[in-house]
Amino acid sequence: MTGGGQIDVGEDPDSFGGNAAPRRGDFTGEWNHVTHEGEHFHGHEITFVECFVNANDEEPPEAGFAEIVFGGTGTFEGEDCTFEVEAEDHGEGRNAPARDEYTIRIDCPGTENDYVTPDEEPILHGNIQIHPLPPGFL
To answer: Which residues lie within the region annotated Disordered (predicted)?
Structure first.
């Protein structure tokens, strides 16, 4: 998955972006989220939790509804945290049935730095792109 954009969380939008991908039987990627107040989260270790892709045999694959949930570890304002991202890819361009959606939950044990965006928030600007898994990955 690759993606980035902004979501509405109040006065000013939050910004997010990064990637998460399978790699030789493991996972790799980075994720960043900046709150409307300027607080920065950087996810540096990714672990996929679930991935639902509308698979088909077309070349190139038709953009269709897809959902991914991934998480891992990172830092939020200098504190060690865990995080989970849920993202939905609703297709591309004007013919997409709906805007892509994004949610992040950041949990920093022992601190007050937890952060959660509204569930299934449509993105204002940007794009979520969930790519097919490479052959032989599963």
So the answer is: 1-27
Summarize pLDDT for 105-123 with one digit per residue, the tens.
999 998 888 999 988 889 9
Residue 90 lies in a domain: yes
Residue from 43, 101, 108, 40 nearest 70 by CA: 43
Whether residue 137 is contained in a domain is answered as no
Quick check: 45 and 74 in contact, CB under 8 A? yes
For the chain, what is the domain count?
Answer: 1
Q: Give domain status of residue 2, yes or no.
A: no
3-state secondary structure the chain: CEEEEEECCCCCCEEEEEEEEEECCEEEEEEEEECCCCCEEEEEEEEEEEEEECCCCCCCCCCCCEEEEEEEEEEECCEEEEEEEEEEECCCHHHCCCCCEEEEEEECCCCCCCEECCCCEEEEEEEEECCCCCCCCC
**pTM assigned to the model:** 0.85
Tracing tokens 């599963």 back to the chain, one arrives at 138
Q: Which residue has the tokens 């399978």?
A: 22
